[in-house]
Amino acid sequence: MDVNAAVAAAAAIAGVLTGVIAMLAFRWSEREQKRPTRTSLHTDPVLPPGVDTVLSVLRSSAVVLDEADAVVKASSAAYALGLVRGGKLAVEPMLQMARDTRRDGEIRQVELDLPRRGTGRGEALAVSARVAPLGSRLVLLLVEDLTEARRIEAVRRDFVANVSHELKTPVGALSLLSEAVMDASDDPEAVERFAGRMQIEATRLTSLVQELIDLSRVQNDDPLEDAEPVRVDELVAEAIDRCRHQAGTKQITMAAGGTADLAVWGNRGQLAAALGNLVENAVNYSPARTRVGIAARRVNAPGGEHIEIAVTDQGIGISDKDKERIFERFYRVDPARSRATGGTGLGLAIVKHVAASHGGEVTVWSAEGQGSTFTLRLPEAGAARDRAHQQPARSERAGGAGLDEEAGRSTPTSPESTAYETLPAPEVLP
């Protein structure tokens, strides 16, 4: 009996101890769950109220750092720029700024050039970084991408410098010639000679101003707002008529051929100017007693059928290094010849922008001493009209100033694709 009582007492004591241990373990578990962990310190609730919402609508790349330099919050743009990697701020100068701001509470701003993410070459990423304290423990970093703004500013500077130079030349010539006329007032032959030179320079200045106006218009206007079907044969006839006098002076034969009854969709005035510039260049850069041809045809393309208008000459040709730059503003393959013919260096830039704003492109094939073929490719009227009704037209602009200076890279086009020998016999227009 005493043995049984002892066993029962031992069992009771063991049960009580088990219960006490279980209760202590439960309370310890609750205490551990309530204790803030390192992970919970870096989640969104540590941000002041409303900050998360504000950061989500900012255009800047935003990063919030805690006192241990760990990233509490980062926008998707910050990841895209490569600012945040592995939960840490990856740009050392910005990290140092954040530490200095956390120490003294002073707002700091700096502009940096960062390498592109994933590549060690190419254009650097220009950014403006601003660091400010956010509450008592956090630091806010805002980063603006300035790459495009810097590129546009550089283009503006180059454009203004080029325009200033091009305007200064004829204006200076007019000033000198006017002085020469005054000094030769008693010599009628000299006055007549100088007056003739003044007319040439005035015409060159007028052409330059007009082409600057045309370039500004094609870059900033939407050509498809007042678009209409434009017959290609009418554009070709107008371009030939525009250059008939220059061609006749050099005894250059102009020939038109290709597929008949083609039409493109766009602004008639801009398309006529673009094709006219191509034909005029072909005449100006061709030797005497040669031929300039204009041919049109329909081609299949992924976005629908396109119309190709090819302008072929038998001129001096263009070197490979020049082909990369001929669509730049004011770039001339032969500056001496351009001055002799009154060229401004803007004609091909206008062609490039007209083609792009109409959803097309302009390409060039050329070989030195063998001539050149410029091909203007535009969507056919029906397909282009349907796309214009479905969605707004896309025009080529840069930074609101219309000065996008992608050099107009030309895509080589084989001469066989636009050669006249493959087309119907052209109509010769003397």
Automatic annotation (TrEMBL):
One of its GO terms (molecular function) is phosphoprotein phosphatase activity. Residues 162-382 form the Histidine kinase domain. Keywords: ATP-binding, Cell membrane, Kinase, Membrane, Nucleotide-binding, Phosphoprotein, Transferase, Transmembrane, Transmembrane helix, Two-component regulatory system. It holds the Pfam family HATPase_c. InterPro entries: BphY/WalK/GraS-like (IPR050351), HATPase_C_sf (IPR036890), HATPase_dom (IPR003594), His_kinase_dom (IPR005467), HisK_dim/P_dom (IPR003661), HisK_dim/P_sf (IPR036097), Sig_transdc_His_kin-like_C (IPR004358). Residues 383-397 have a biased composition (Basic and acidic residues). It is an enzyme of class 2 (transferase). Coiled coil: none annotated. CDD domains: HATPase, HisKA. It is a multi-pass membrane protein. Its main location: membrane. One of its GO terms (cellular component) is plasma membrane. One of its GO terms (biological process) is cellular response to phosphate starvation. Residues 410-420 have a biased composition (Polar residues). Residues 383-430 are annotated as: Disordered. It is found in: Cell membrane. The keyword rRNA-binding does not apply. The keyword Cell membrane applies. This is Sensor-like histidine kinase SenX3. It comes from Streptomyces chartreusis NRRL 3882.
